[in-house]
Design goal:
CATH class of chain A: Alpha Beta
Strand order of the largest sheet of chain B: 1-2
CATH architecture of chain A: 3-Layer(aba) Sandwich
Distance between the termini of chain B: 44 Å
Largest sheet of chain A: 8 strands, mixed
Number of domains of chain B: 2
Number of helices of chain B: 6
Helix content of chain A: 25-40%
Oligomer: heterodimer
Number of helices of chain A: 9
CATH superfamily of chain A: Vaccinia Virus protein VP39
Number of strands of chain A: 8
Order of helices and strands of chain B: HHHHEHEH
Amino acid sequence: MPKLRPYLQLGGLRHDFPIIAEMVAPNSRVLDIGCGDGDLLQFLQLERNVDGRGLELSQTGVNASVARGLAVVQGDADMDLVDYPDGAFDVVILSQSLQVLHQPRGVLEQMLRIGQQAIVSFPNFAYWRVRWDLLRRGRMPITSDLPGPWYDTANIHLCTILDFLTLCDEMNLHIDQALTLSRRGAAKPIGKMPGWANLAGEQGVFLLRRG
Amino acid sequence: MAAHITYLSEAALQNKFDRNLQDRAELSFGFDADFQVESYLRHQGSTFVDRFDANFYLYITRAMDYFDLGAEYGGTLANAFLETKTEFCIVSFTSDWLYPTAENKAVVRALNAAAAKVSFVEVDSDKGHDAFLLDEPEMFKTLGGFLRAAAQRRGLSSAGA
């Protein structure tokens, strides 16, 4: 088989994957929480040669991951992270799953207990299209990042980039990197004007460590 | 007979036999095998007695009762797996009541606490404990993926082989 760039080979990757890979040092020990079918873990193995583990709630996701040879266990991030020892991983990743958790703050605390660093990416509920949709239609927004009607969505704890920055402040977390992603996958640092990033960024991606 | 029931599941027995009668049109209200499921279990029971010495079951049962891996490691199961280089793949079946998912998960928790490399899959099946002997495509996919990846990491097979 010819050697292709992994993200071409795998196809259909979410556009936060290359950004997340940039944040992960080669040969790191990585835990991916809510790893789905294992796409990100496999991407990180190919791109960064990580020693990867995964935690996934859905049986189909776990089975697909293990069938790909990934070390993934079935479990619930809200309940099961307490079983992992302190400092077991270099990086703990929560990609696009913050908003489905029952205890997002508790999970963040666990992530930085078991990992030196944490990477969190989530859809920004203050993105201008979301705001416009809510203003114009007066209904819960439906976008590519937030598909499905309000009664049929796993997204129970939606937040904005500003909300997340406040939470990091309250938890005394140090932000090593803060980026927004456009729908085309272009990354921009949030920098000194978070209010603007909060309007223009479809997703937020954060690299965190204990403060 | 009692042992054989634990290899199966209630749902599987229900589907296979329901309350069907064995070679008769109506209930006899005696101690003969009125129901097909009774006849089946009696047959399995007598087959077992012919094939195995019942005393083996006594010894195996006692050996299992006395086995306590955690006790050998200060009462904490995770300590048994510290520094292990082994890759673990744990598979449970939803209808297995000999090795139920909850107990498999306890082993997974201990392996995680020891930072071991572990995969865990629960396979949906009504075949009970015996599911691992039967045609379970999810189990085959899981085992295939796990073994292929382990072989590749050790240079024992090429990609996709």
